[in-house]
Each structure stands twice: as structure tokens, then as C-alpha cells.
Amino acid sequence: MNNMTTIQQLVCFALVSMISIQAFASDNKQPNILFAIADDMSHASAYGYKFVNTPNLDQLAKQGLLFKNMFTPSSKCSSSRAVVITGRNPWQLEVAANHSPNWPKKFKSFVQVLAKNGYHTGFTGKGWGPGNTHGILLTGKEYNHIKRTKKPAAAGINKLDYTENFKAFYQDKPKNEPFFFWFGSKEPHRSYEFKSGVKNGKSFADLDFLPTFWGNSEQVKHDILDYSIEVEDYDTKLGEILQYLESKGELGNTLVVVTSDNGMPFPRYKGHPFDFSTRVPFVVSWPNNIVAPGRAVTSFTSFTDIAPTMLEVAQIKQNDMQPIEGKSLVSIFNNKNANTRNSVVTGRERNDPSRPNGWGYPVRSIHTENYVYTYNFEENRWPSGTPDADYRDTDHSPTKYITKNSEQDGLIFQANYGKRPQQELYDLKKDPECLTNLANKPAFKQIQAKLHDELFAELTKQADPRMFGQGDVFDQYEGEARAKKYHLLVEIAEKGSYEWKAVKHMKKKK
Predict the structure, then answer these.
(1) CA-atom Rg of the chain in angstroms
(2) Local structure of 313: helix, strand or coil
(3) How far apart are CA 347 and CA 362, in angstroms?
(4) How many helices (H) and strands (E) does the chain have?
(5) CA atoms of 119 and 179, how far apart (whole Å)
(6) Cα dihedral: 271, 273, 276, 279 (round 10)
(7) How many whole angstroms separate alpha carbon 51 and alpha carbon 221?
(8) Structure pTM?
(9) CB-based contacts of 212: which residues, under 8 Å, 6+ apart?
(10) Which residues on neighbouring strands pair with residue 256, listed in sequence order?
């Protein structure tokens, strides 16, 4: 009798838990959604780093989920954000696979769908971009009219007051209407105030992150600390927005997603296909709608999963978007792991037009727990841009200045700017910096062949033009304009206009 009572109690408890956790499925009230996306961020203290402090992100992770294997399929702003809003991989987005394109109107964003289904939508900072939206509200109405009244911690930080712009958005919201807000911080995009990290109390002793392929110079160390100041500004503004939502009684009904569009703006990171370049921070919090909060999620997930997640959370079953490639993360919220993958695919087409004819550097990669395999379709091209264009596919910075002026046959220069073979294979457990290429080594022949076949099979399934001998289309998109831009970059490089100097006044972010 006692055993039966215990069983009955357990069953009742499970049913109550299931009902409370999955209440959004039957509750007609659509949740608010706050989507916070940094610009070029790879780190947060929730992931164990000490040189950067992100208490607001960390708290959300404790209350929700910390994703350990979230990847952007393209580690560059425009194409990464295009994946977010469409749920499709870059090679499925025509010209939007490239950086700074004219938006192809056939692709609608999930934000447009939310707006059609009763959501008040808007953004501050950087929405989709850079590029030409043709006036389409891909991330909602723009709220960028309010500037900061207090001086930020560093001169390179954008003057927009993201918090006050969010408040203006919220005040415009009709009563009882749910909202979707895109908090697009422009940090930690370059430029940085040199030595702003030390100015704000940081020291080299704080650094627990310093890749071998950047060397050990003081300039590089300062650059990393300066980057951390901008990451912390993003986190601070996130905290202010969360506090405002709490004061309005809205936080309990708000799904919060915190991430970054791509890797940090340093050599070998932003724009490149390595594991550390495409893996980004990703935290989700949603009070009373996440089973076993505080979990670390190790399933392989992709930015293609964001759009279907938003649509499911908003209870929208039909839309007029192009077919979505990703899978909803709601099963992970419910601790069912129905989304589980054991690999993700990433890629790259034209970033900055820093090669003759404005050509890109086409790459596809497959990432697993133990390996990353990369196929470079045009191995004779320069992955970071040509020398005469000053390797412009890597953002200018103190770290770039140091690394590009190192010995050209040395590890530092070659890792950051040298040409790469057609196939690359790295053991992520033994070689997380991806410095020892195992491709074509007899001991790894089977692994290489297996990953190559899996990668090409998946790309074929996804109708990637490069699988059908049509990859040149990515170079042809807006080709004439990009070729002109390449020649302009060469002229600028010849004049030395982009050369980094520590005393040079930091440019404002665009």
C-alpha cells in the first residue's frame, strides 16, 4: 500500500512538473523574447575565463542553460546574422552567404513572421548587417536615437545607449502585446582604446587566454585586455535591460537568449573556419520553462536552430519563410535532447573582398567532439587576403600588427596569414589550437575519409552549389563592385593608411 502511494505521488509530481514546464504549449499567452547578440565575442566568465567578467550572462546561465557546442555556420557578421534570422546555412542563402550584400528579398526573417503574428518587434545597435536591407525590417523597427550621457569605460565603445533605446521600444509597445527585441550590441567590435584594459584596473596577471599563434608580446596582451573591457560593456547593458524588465514585471514571461554573431576580431578567429573561430557563447534563460535549469548543454547546435526555436516558442506553426534547415531547441529546454547532433557543418565564402576580382576564400568544415575537418576549395588563394591588400580579411589591430610583422616562415605568421592546403584535419583533444594538420597522414586516413564523406553528403543534401560544380556563383554575386573594392584596399594599403599605431585616435564604429 505504501509503495503504491509512493508511486502515485511520483506520477502526480511528474505530471505537475511536465505541465508547469511545458505550460507555454497550452497557454495562449505568447512569451516575450529578448535576443542579445554581441558583435565579435568569443568569451564569457561563465565558460571559465578569468580575464573577462560577465556576471549578468553568468547569472542567466545559472538560471537556465549554458550551451558548450553552439556554432555559427559562418564566422563573419552579415552571413552569421543571416543564418540567425532565416534558419538556413550560408550556402543556402545565395548572395547572403557573402559579407555586406544586398539582401535577397526572397528570404524572410523569423522576426518578420513574429511581427505578422502579433509581436511588437524592434532592435537597437546592430541588427542584420552590414549590407543593404532595401528598407525591410529584418530585425524589427530601429531604436538607435538615444545616445549615452555617461562616458563609457573606453573610447572605442559605441555611444549608443542600448538600455534607454530599449526603454523607448518598450514604451511604444501596445498593452498586452508580446515583444521581440534584438539587443545588437556593437561591442566588442573594433576599434579599441589601446591600453584601456589596464586603465580600467586589469593586468597581465589576469590573462588566462593567450593563443600560441599570437606570440607573447605586451601589445597582444594589452589588445586582449582591451577586448575584455568591451565584452564587459555588453554584459553591463544586458544587466540594465534585464533589471528594467524585472521592474515592469515582464522578466518572468521573457525568453532571454545571449550570444555573439561570430568569433573575436583577432587573427585566425573572426572569419575563419577553425573550431575556436565558429564556436560561440550561447546562454538561454526562461523562468519556469526549462527543465533542470543550470545545466550545461553539450549537444552540437547551430545558429540555424534559432529561427525554428523562436517560432515554436511563439506558437507559430505556419509561416511564409523559405524552408528552414535548423531544428528547434525546445526539446533541449525540456531536457529531452531530441535535437541531438554529433556534428555541425560550417563554411565561408566572400568576407572582405581582399583578393583579385573581389574573390572569396571558400571553405566547408565539419566539427565533431574530437576532430574538425576542413575542405578549402581554392587553396591557392590567400585565406586572410593578399599581401598587397594588407591581409584585409583580418581586422586591423595591435595583434595583427605584431603577427603580420613576425618572421614570414615562422609559426605565427604562417598560422595567421599563410596559404593552407586543400584538406585540413585537427585533433581537438590534443591540438585545440589547430596547429598540426593530420590530413593525408596514414594513421588518420580513415578518419579523414569518413569526415570528408559525411561533410560532402550533408552539403549535397542541403543543395550547396559547390557540390554541383556551381560554386563560382558566390564570387560572381556583386562581382564588379567587389573587384573595385579590392583595388581600393590595395591603394589604401600602399599608402599605409591602415597601419596600426598605438597613439592613433581610435576610429568610431560604423
Answers:
(1) 23
(2) helix
(3) 7
(4) 16, 14
(5) 5
(6) 90
(7) 11
(8) 0.93
(9) 411, 433, 435
(10) 34, 285
- Length, in residues, of the chain: 510
- What 8-state DSSP symbol labels residue 266? S
Would you list the DSSP string of 71-92?
A: E-SSSSHHHHHHHHHHSS-GGG
Backbone angles phi, psi at 52, to 5 degrees: -130, 145
Q: Say how far apart CA 305 and CA 340 lie, in whole Å.
A: 11
Site of grid cell 596577471: 205
Give 383: exposed, middle or buried? Use CB within 10 Å, 0-12, 13-18, 19+. Answer: buried
Burial state string for 473-503 with b = 16 or more CB within 10 A and e = fewer than 16: ebbebbbeebbebbeebbeebeeeeeebeee
Query: For helices 162-172 and 218-247, what crossing angle results, to 10°?
Result: 30
Alpha-carbon distances, residue 324 vs 36, 85, 419 (angstroms) = 22, 10, 34
**How far is 190 from 337, CA to CA, in rounded Å?**
37
- Say which amino acid occupies 96: A
Q: How far, in Å, CA of 193 to CA of 156, rounded?
A: 5
What angle is formed at CA 30 by the lines to CA 29 and CA 33, rounded to 5 degrees?
140
pLDDT in tens, the chain (510 residues): 444 444 444 444 444 444 444 444 445 689 999 999 999 999 999 999 999 999 999 999 999 999 999 999 999 999 999 999 999 999 999 999 999 999 999 999 999 999 999 999 999 999 999 999 999 999 999 999 999 999 999 999 999 999 999 999 999 999 999 999 999 999 999 999 999 999 999 999 999 999 999 999 999 999 999 999 999 999 999 999 999 999 999 999 999 999 999 999 999 999 998 999 999 999 999 999 999 999 999 999 999 999 999 999 999 998 999 999 999 999 999 999 766 789 999 999 999 999 999 999 999 999 999 999 999 999 999 999 999 999 999 999 999 999 999 999 999 999 999 999 999 999 999 999 999 999 999 999 999 999 999 999 999 999 999 999 999 999 999 988 999 999 999 988 888 755 554 335 334 444
Integer Cα distance of 326 and 302 in angstroms: 7
Helices (H), ranges, 263-404: 275-278, 306-313, 330-333, 398-404
Angle at 357 between CA 353 and CA 361, to 5 degrees: 50
Q: What is residue 160's three-state secondary structure? A: strand
Amino acid at 256: V
The answer to whether the beta carbons of residues 257 and 33 sit under 8 Å apart is: yes
Greatest CA span in the chain, whole angstroms? 88
Q: In what order do the strands lie in the sheet containing 423-427?
A: 344-348, 363-367, 371-376, 423-427
Which residues, in sequence order, are CB contacts of 48 under 8 Å at separation 6+?
none
